[in-house]
Specification:
The chain is α/β, with parallel strands linked by helices and 434 residues long. It is built from 16 helices and eleven strands. It folds into three domains: 1-64, Alpha-Beta Plaits; 68-342, no CATH class; 360-434, Electron transport complex subunit B, putative Fe-S cluster (3-methyladenine DNA Glycosylase II, Chain A, domain 3, Orthogonal Bundle), CATH 1.10.15.
């Protein structure tokens, strides 16, 4: 997808924005500016992590996902529940009530993404055995982290493991199994992910590492939660069987993936700003002893997604308890080796760097702009107050060089200039009196 035609689930509701600048400081890619009293999101920089959704007290940042009614656009619909969905309900004794509740809402079938996580775990486990790969290998499961690497750490792109996300693997298998069982055509089956975050919606519309997503849409966990609740406590004679394992369900929590893939010499980090700091360490060759790095944009892992209903700590504990009720079979033992070749589990499109941070495509011009930017930066106060509408003095200098604002947008520079003008006016008045 062309850079000027990116899809974003995270959107700005201008009518609610108060121009308060709170969001400026929390965006990991410095994608937000405030101009003329309103925020705006720089399309090329946004990674759809949802941090601005969390921080905006005026609810001016929103996530656009599919409505439940979207499933009626297909003759048949399959639900793909993210493992974090199970953590939204307290005291579950089994995953089956959630699967049955999804069917009660109109889905013809349900395929657990936790099963896709098991398959991906084995695929990554096999990948780690290949010689010559850069270390550490970085998880590709969180699309916000992958996009962060594209924007801010392009040199780390070769470290990203080229295995598709669990929801993609689950979607491929779910459609194939359903069509084989019912005899219907693949194009008549809509596969919908129940998502805890906007980044997954963006990954469906603008895939990473693959030409086309196997998922047809994403429905917010927040939206579907209330509709599921009336069906959760129903006791069915023949509940839907579950295939989730301890390891697959634990993918919902931070470190769940790493424990399934590489329990030793691995590192799990949650929270996009924490991930950013660790990626800096990896880029500076300070963590070469690591074999695998799992980064989660949301605090606590997917249970901390901004589209979840339940508090992330409560959900994390619910997942921990529920996972112990599932079979403890490790993916290496639970997933047949034949699955590694039966489905396209690996990327079919290279991940490209996002060059938005470059000042110009021409290297000489870019260096000239960099010199100008540094000169402007030296003349700025260095407070990083955000009053100018840019998150830092450095980004403000960059915005000036790009022609998006002027130095007088800095209130401190303006104050100094007004002081100089006032002094000159006093001097002029004194001269006239003399």
């Amino acid at each position: 997808m062309e850079q000027n035609k990116r899809y974003h689930s995270v959107r700005l509701d201008v009518s609610r924005c108060k121009g308060c600048t709170n969001c400026l400081k929390h965006c990991p890619t410095e994608a937000i500016r405030v101009r003329n009293g309103r925020a705006y999101i720089i399309d090329e920089r946004c990674i759809d992590c949802g941090e601005c959704i969390r921080i905006c007290e005026y609810h001016a940042k929103i996530a656009v996902t599919d409505d439940l009614s979207a499933i009626r656009g297909f003759p048949h619909a399959i639900a793909l529940p993210a493992p974090s969905l199970y953590g939204q309900f307290k005291n579950l004794k089994s995953i089956s009530p959630v699967l049955d509740a999804l069917k009660a809402l109109g889905f013809d079938d349900v395929f657990e993404v936790a099963r896709g996580a098991d398959i991906v775990s084995r695929a990554i486990h096999e990948k780690l055995r290949e010689p010559g790969l850069p270390k550490p290998l970085i998880s590709s499961a969180c699309p916000a982290v992958v996009r962060l690497i594209q924007v801010r750490f392009p040199d780390l792109i070769p470290h990203i493991v080229d295995v598709r996300q669990p929801m993609e693997v689950a979607a491929m298998i779910a459609r194939q199994v359903f069509c084989r069982k019912t005899g219907c055509a693949p194009e008549d089956v809509g596969v919908f992910f129940i998502t805890p975050c906007p980044a997954k919606m963006t990954a469906i519309r603008s895939p990473i590492g693959q030409k086309k997503s196997a998922v047809d849409g994403a429905i917010s966990m927040m939206e579907i939660y209330a509709q599921l609740m009336p069906h959760i406590d129903r006791v069915l004679t023949h509940p839907t069987p579950t295939s989730s394992t301890y390891y697959g369900v634990r993918w919902a929590n931070s470190s769940g993936e790493a424990s399934a893939v590489c329990p030793e010499n691995s590192l799990s980090v949650d929270g996009i700003h924490n991930v950013l700091r660790v990626l800096e360490e990896i880029e500076n060759n300070k963590l070469n002893d690591l074999v695998f790095f799992e980064g989660n944009a949301c605090a606590g892992g997917c249970v901390g997604g901004p589209l979840n209903f339940e508090n992330n700590y409560v959900a994390k504990n619910a997942i921990r308890k529920l996972s112990h009720l599932c079979p403890m079979e490790h993916p290496v033992d639970n997933v047949p080796a034949s699955m590694m070749t039966k489905y396209p589990l690996y990327f079919d499109t290279p991940i490209e760097p996002n060059s938005v941070m470059q000042l110009d495509d021409n290297l000489i011009v870019a260096m000239q702009k960099m010199e100008k930017m540094n000169a402007i930066l030296e003349g700025l106060p260095g407070y990083d107050c955000g009053s100018c509408g840019s998150p830092t003095c450095r980004t403000f200098a960059e915005d000036i060089v790009r022609g998006n604002c002027s130095e007088m947008d800095c209130i401190h520079k303006l104050k100094d200039q007004l002081k100089i003008m006032a002094e000159r006016m006093v001097e002029l008045a004194q001269t006239k009196r003399e």
